[in-house]
Amino acid sequence: MAKNNPLIKPYLKWAGGKRQLLSEIKKHLPKDINKHTYYEPFLGAGAVFFDLQPKKAVINDYNEQLIITYNVIKENVDELIGLLKVYEKRNVEEYYYKIRNIDRDESKFNKLTNIEKAVRLIFLNKTCFNGLYRVNSQGLFNVPFGKYKNPSICEDIILHQINIYLNSNQVRILNKDFEYAVSTAGKKSFIYFDPPYHSPDKTNFTGYQADRFGEDEQERLRNVMIKMTNRGVKCLLSNSDTEYIRELYNFDCFDIISVQAKRAINSDSSGRGNVNELLIKNWKCNAN
After folding, report:
1. Are residues 52 and 81 in the same domain?
2. Bridge-partner residues for 274, per DSSP?
């Protein structure tokens, strides 16, 4: 098997990103994963997706602005890079807040092209405090300026390599509900679920979008994973190591595995550093 391209990697920082957990995740993938269509319905920065570089994939995220960036990289990468280089020269606090506050004026924000929206998200992500993507209850980006001296705003080589990869393989990009995104998965599919993590004390960061991912959504996700298991689809899920999640997946068909991850982004300092997380897979019900 050809070695994957190391230049194809996340172009964004993302809370809950899986770069630090990749080695553990890869221990629990199907041995024949290259024969599967890869599904990832909570894509985020795509650390697992970009590491595996599947030939056939369905990738999805409910965050519309995020998915716009993926589509722009696929379809308009040169225009994206050109405008990013303009923004790169304006990395000062005053300009940051000018760009950040565009979404306070809905009519002004809606006039932006998709390329301009993608550039805005990447610029804010690379220059905001701690590389945090967070919106308030109105859906407005509200992270303060990061005051970094020389952030890597325009990683043109990485963006070009992602563009080539997305256009050279069968990769379908969706902006749908997670249940819809995996609805076409079958026995020759593999799904990696990486939802916003359960947080009983609401200290874990989950502010990717205005409508939060609560316990009712966690339960719906569990039900989808049971449905996929009954369909014969191999699934692996990441979540926080809480009593609620352990009980939610307390079924004979699930294998619950405790792993340790290093987290740098959390609204509470106790949630940073080395923390226990769970990997949950349905191999007990599926032949490997």
Report:
1. no
2. 262
